[in-house]
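Researcher: Before we compare anything, I want clean individual predictions. No alignment, no superposition, just each chain on its own. First chain goes here; please echo the sequence and then give the structure tokens.
Model: Echoing the first chain and its structure:
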Amino acid sequence: VQSVTQVDGLGTVTAKVTYAPKGVRPDKATLVVKSNDPDRGEQRVALSGAGADRLVSVAVEYPDGGIVEADGGALDVELGELPRDVSQVVWPSLLLQNQGGAAAALTGASFEKAASSPFVLPQPPTLPQTLAARQTRSLPVAFKGPTDASGDARDALNLTFDDPKRPSVRVTLHAHQGVRQPPVACAGIHTVE
């Protein structure tokens, strides 16, 4: 970048230099300041820096306090047997943690079955959702129904991040809700003693 600035006698100019690292590797550059000053026509300023690492992890925190972390890019969440009335169920939360030293962002959160998913994010994040260095955010997940004919509910939540080491995590969700069987008419049953 080149620019020309006139500085009057005994004046000063402040130049703002911004560093936007592309990764964690060290970077070096030289800022060259040229002037028509016969004694100091060119000044060189060495610049260096290194980007901080981002490392996003995803875990599930169950209501009983148990935590299970994703294995690489996948996490299985088993919600177990659900009661008929799920309005009083305490649901697990996904824990999104930036374990790195630089800000990271959640850039996407979508169910593979979209609107027909039996699961919902009761408090969907505003995207992109920034996670500062060492910050953890909770993302609750809930069952909204319905189940299939056998009482099973399955879907996957795809989370995407601007983290080059872990750009996405697939969270599979499974729950089972007992299916009411129709009453069976019984006639002519005899007990034997």
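Researcher: Okay. Second chain, same rules.
Model: Second chain and its structure:
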Amino acid sequence: GAMRDRHPRVRLTLLEGDSHAITRWMAGNEADIGVLPEGSSDTSLHAIECGRQVFCFCGPADGFPVLPASMPLGDALSYPLALSIPPNRLRRLVDSAAAGIGREVRPVLNASSSHLITALMRQGELYTIRPRIGPVPAVVDGTAFIPIAEPAIQRGISVVWSTARPLSPAGEAARATLEELLRGMDGAQAPG
């Protein structure tokens, strides 16, 4: 790909985890760079915000003959939801937005596995709320992403690295490429 063509001697290992795992990997020198929502909230990390995540109501696309432009949060909460186990950053934002409209989030399933939630959602039994970078509403791999409205829920997404040590030249190249990729996913620019 483009990264390998531009930097043939750089090798990357991709780790996937929640924000707590990413922060732990950074502190333990297991990862040099990461992508983290609300990255500037952790003082142990340098952060460059590269875009915005829009929280979306998600379900099987075939359940929506016409994809609505948005869905009020109160309506989304009336569906059988599978959500990540609190406390985490995603649930904190969803729970806070619900409290702001006088509602409580009561998922039928709290799960630590996003893969399990996706599998159940694709069977058409459950729905979820997920952040997305990119145009919305949208259908991606058979899943409808409908932006939550009333209130809208968004958060910044940042490329992060440890304040405890400088990035190597290869790490700098990977960081710059990752920033470019995130900014290009939906044309988002860092706030300024």
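Researcher: What stands out in the second chain?
Model: The chain has six helices and nine strands. Additionally, The longest helix spans residues 169-186.
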